[in-house]
């Protein structure tokens, strides 16, 4: 069979398994209600953890781990919203949800701009102009630099923007990408960072610099410390840093580590969904998976059946994995770390 025939079979069988699941549990058909309930529950639990930390009832590490998990769930919810899965016919509620899942995850791109990059990702996954995945280190050789900048969308993208834009221009010159599409991708990538993403990253840069300088001062008596004015601003920002930014830094590192290594890059046959992703379920990825709601288990399923909720993917993932494995989708291809995410051996 051709890859397209295999893809059609995988898609058909997974959709059939979803229909069987929903027939067995009719409540799953109320996706707007379920999606909104998850949205409100995560926000309330996150606020509750923040309050408990603020009044010294739980330690900072518990707050960071708890909110990192909750924000991982909200990332999946945002992903569904980007595909208009909830409240498609009620744009007010839809956009309110999209706004709040961004505000509590401000290290990531503006979701309205990200929608442009994400739709392009589905159409051209693994190509040199797959801006969304390249922005999270996909396709780069593993090194200390890649590890350090895995969660970073500001400095990390500044370091790769020249190469990325050169590759986009080359693809336009070859006729593989329309000029207007290239322009739209560039603008979406840049404006998607403004203002919250850049501001949130800057706060974290200053926060960690302050910690490092205090360490040097205490350990080696080096007289390098932050000015009192900046320290006062950091003190004022402490609730935002601990309740929102640090959990998101952990969540974003875990998500980017998983997604950049389950997507293939560079030698993917365009339109061949089987070559776009693999399934990552190997045991040592579990700590990473926990804070991106087991993205490695389910995202490959999404590439075959796009317009389905994340919780259905999770509930039905075992059957989907069985179908995908039978038709050649890769599982736990750890060679991708050595091959800089290429599908084939280099």
Topology at a glance:
Layout: H1 3-24, H2 31-54, H3 60-82, H4 91-103, H5 111-123, H6 131-134, H7 144-148, H8 155-174, H9 179-191, H10 196-220, H11 228-262, H12 286-290, H13 295-304, H14 310-315, H15 317-326
Give the % helix.
Answer: 55-70%
Spatial extent as radius of gyration: 21 Å
The average pLDDT value, as a whole number, equals 96
Low-confidence stretches: none
Question: For the terminal residues, how far apart are their CA atoms?
Answer: 26 Å
Largest sheet: none
Structural class: mainly alpha
SS summary, helix count: 15
Beta-strand residue fraction: under 5%
Order of helices and strands: HHHHHHHHHHHHHHH
Number of strands: 0
Shape: globular
Domain count: 1
Protein name: Fatty acid desaturase
Domain Fatty acid desaturase: 60-333
Keywords: Membrane, Transmembrane, Transmembrane helix
InterPro entries: FA_desaturase_dom
What are the defining features of this structure?
346 residues; mainly alpha; 15 helices; 0% strand
Task: Give a structural overview.
- It is a single chain.
- The chain is mainly alpha-helical and 346 residues long.
- The chain has one domain (3-337).
- α3 (60-82) runs antiparallel to α4.
- The model has no long low-confidence stretch (mean pLDDT 96).
- It contains 15 helices and no strands.
- It has helices at residues 3-24, 31-54, 60-82, 91-103, 111-123, 131-134, 144-148, 155-174, 179-191, 196-220, 228-262, 286-290, 295-304, 310-315, 317-326.
